[in-house]
Design goal:
14 helices; 5-stranded mixed beta sheet; alpha+beta; binds adenosine-5'-triphosphate; binds magnesium ion; 5-stranded antiparallel beta sheet
């Protein structure tokens, strides 16, 4: 810009010099020697006046206008930080001021726009749902971070491509097509398999219109509903399990009572046998219903917990006769190891008793006769550790993580025989959790199982 400015000034000066020299050349031959001096001096003065005028004109008009043109060009290219040269006076100074004002406003607007854009991007990227924006030609214009996570993609894989090249998922293609076809909100859910895991995704697609009401694209929101589906599945499994558990004893009660009613049975021994079965099966139903109620109360925090200072040693003394009897009946060696000192924690006496009873009951049930069951309490500085160990059949490795599930049994056929409902450990786990405790287990098939309960110690 500077060189072109000086080139322009030089051109003006040369033009003036040429014009003045021309005048001199024409006038000189007709003047006297004194007159010549006057002409030269006049021409020199005229040159000086012209030079001053040129500089003045240049500074007041040409330079500011040219600078304003440059600034306008910069702004057109998006550089709002540009400013123009301002002269102190003249019309051009008003122009320069206005251009600078315009640049300042545009810069402020661009900054605002950037802040708003950043805010929007932050919101879109931190949404808990995946988001995809498609233009009217079916090209993906925008996806958020959650979308990329959901479908394990990078930004480059996803944007500026046709939607069906972006995600190879027919469910999504259908939603997009229906949104464009019916121009209305469409909702659908489908299963996606990624790295052998199944996810359930719900998609809601909605059309986007411009101000004149023309369809300009579609926005799709994806929710991961896997957890919801799992909960639904668990609920269905639960109902199926309960029905299944009830079916056997009910069928048997019905069968035996029908036989008793129909046959005029003379054999009192057989009659008693049937009635005993009916009693046993009804007790089983009762146990199942009681366990279910217990579990449901625990899960819904409805169980009235009487939290108080409890000495675990003294608490065990109260259940010892029951478990001793059970062990003796099955010829199992029950060993108790509770040091003679207080083991105080904050807890519900009935709940804790039930948890210990369930664990010892299991230990005795799943240990063959002449085996060993050990109950011990160990005091750590901040915690109390209760162990129930047996030398029984153990739990296979693949079942260890599932034994706390409701109705889970390692061997269904065998358990039916022991009369278990498969709810005992689920109840124990809940009781431990309401006491802010932890339960772990260590087991080896045919060698035995140890359950370790840890509770916060008081005092
Ligand atoms: N000490 C143990 N040794 C071996 N297997 C065990 C032991 N404790 C639990 N299990 C396994 O875990 C399953 C779940 O135990 P849980 O106590 O919940 O149910 P259950 O004993 O079958 O019935 P119940 O509800 O009457 O206690 C059992 O069926 C059994 O297969
Ligand atoms: Mg049990």
């Amino acid at each position: 810009m500077k060189t072109s400015n000086s080139r322009l000034i030089t051109t003006y000066i040369i033009a003036v010099v040429l014009v003045l020299s021309g005048i001199g050349a024409v006038v000189m031959p007709f003047t006297s020697p004194v007159g010549k001096i006057v002409v030269v001096l006049s021409l020199l003065s005229a040159l000086i006046v012209f030079l001053i005028l040129i500089f003045n004109f240049f500074n007041t008009y040409i330079k500011p206008v040219r600078s304003a043109i440059r600034a306008a060009g910069d702004m057109a290219k998006g550089n709002y930080r540009t400013r123009t040269y301002t002269s102190l006076y003249g019309e051009a100074s008003v122009l320069a001021e206005s251009v600078n004002e315009l640049a300042r406003n545009l810069q402020a607007m661009a900054t605002q726009e950037k802040i708003r854009g950043d805010q929007l991007k932050t919101v879109v990227d931190n949404m808990e749902s995946g988001l995809m924006l498609i233009d009217e030609h079916g090209y993906v214009q925008l996806v958020n971070r959650k979308f990329l996570d959901m479908f394990d993609m990078t930004q480059a894989d996803a944007t500026d491509r046709l939607y069906y090249d972006t995600v190879d998922e027919e469910g999504i293609h259908n939603v997009v097509q229906k949104v464009f076809l019916y121009e209305t909100k469409i909702k659908d859910s489908f299963m996606v398999t990624m790295e052998q895991d199944n996810y359930y995704i719900e998609t809601v697609g909605a059309p986007i219109y411009n101000e004149s009401g023309q369809l300009t694209g579609a926005v799709l929101v994806y929710h991961d509903i896997t957890e919801l589906k799992q909960l639904e599945q668990m609920r269905n499994d639960f109902v199926a399990n309960v029905s299944h558990e009830l079916k056997t004893p009910i069928t048997s009660i019905r069968g035996f009572s029908e036989t008793l009613l129909e046959d005029t049975m003379d054999d009192p021994g057989l009659q008693e046998q049937f009635l005993t079965i009916i009693l046993k099966e009804s007790k089983r139903i009762q146990a199942l219903v009681e366990d279910l109620l217990e579990l449901s109360k625990l899960e819904n925090d409805e169980r009235d917990l009487q939290m108080e200072e409890v000495d675990l040693g003294a608490l065990f003394k109260e259940i010892e006769p029951i478990v001793r009897q059970q062990a003796t009946d099955k010829e199992i060696d029950l060993q108790i190891s509770i040091p003679n000192e207080p083991f105080i924690m904050f807890g519900d006496v009935d709940g804790l008793k039930q948890a210990f009873l369930n664990l010892i009951d299991n230990a005795i049930n799943y240990t063959p006769s002449h085996g060993k069951v050990q109950f011990s309490i160990d005091g750590k500085p901040k915690t109390l550790e209760v162990r129930v160990a047996d030398t029984g059949i153990g739990i296979p490795r693949e079942a260890v993580s599932r034994v706390f599930e409701r109705f889970f049994r390692v061997d269904r056929a065998r358990n039916r025989h022991t009369g278990g409902t498969g709810l005992g450990l689920a109840i124990v786990k809940h009781i431990v959790e309401v006491h802010d405790g932890q339960i772990e287990l260590d087991s080896k098939t045919d060698r035995g199982t140890t359950f370790i309960l840890t509770f916060p110690r008081m005092g």
